[in-house]
Specification:
It contains two helices and no strands. It has 144 residues and is mainly alpha-helical. It has one domain. Helix 1 packs across helix 2. It is rod-shaped and about 175 Å long. 0% of the residues are buried.
Length: 144
């Protein structure tokens, strides 16, 4: 009977070995399934992260375009204001110069009128002053 015990043991051992192999195969298959699922989840997370990053970059681009437009608009407005200020200042300067020119013309006319009146009232003094001025002018020109 010793054979019978050995054969039972062999059969039990074979069954245990077979059950162990099946369990190991099943565990390996489950591990592969879990690994594949983890890889798929990681790929999906990567794709989502990439898409989120891409969306954020697109939003940033749009924000930068908006900011550039706002800066351009502000610059144009500042330039228009500066141009308007310069035009007002130039008009004021032209008006002041015209007023000064008119004032100088009036003063010159007054001076000529006074000179004419002086020459009519005192012709001898006027001739003496003119001769003296001519003499002084000639002397200063000769010394050069």
């Amino acid at each position: 009977m010793p054979n019978s015990d050995t054969s039972k043991r062999d059969t039990t051992a074979d069954k245990a070995l077979s059950a162990g192999k099946d369990a190991a195969s099943k565990a390996a298959a489950e591990a592969v399934d879990h690994a594949e699922q983890a890889a798929a989840d990681a790929a999906q997370a990567t794709d989502q992260s990439y898409e989120e990053l891409r969306a954020q970059v697109e939003t940033l681009k749009q924000d930068l375009v908006g900011l550039a437009d706002a800066a351009r608009s502000a610059g144009a407005q500042t330039a228009r204001q500066a141009y308007g200020g310069a035009r007002r200042a130039s008009r004021k300067a032209a008006a002041a110069a015209e007023d000064g020119y008119d004032f100088a013309g009036e003063r010159l006319d007054d001076a000529f009128t006074e000179a004419e009146d002086f020459v009519r009232e005192r012709p001898a003094v006027a001739m003496g002053l003119a001769a003296s001025a001519g003499f002084l002018l000639a002397m200063s020109l000769l010394r050069r």
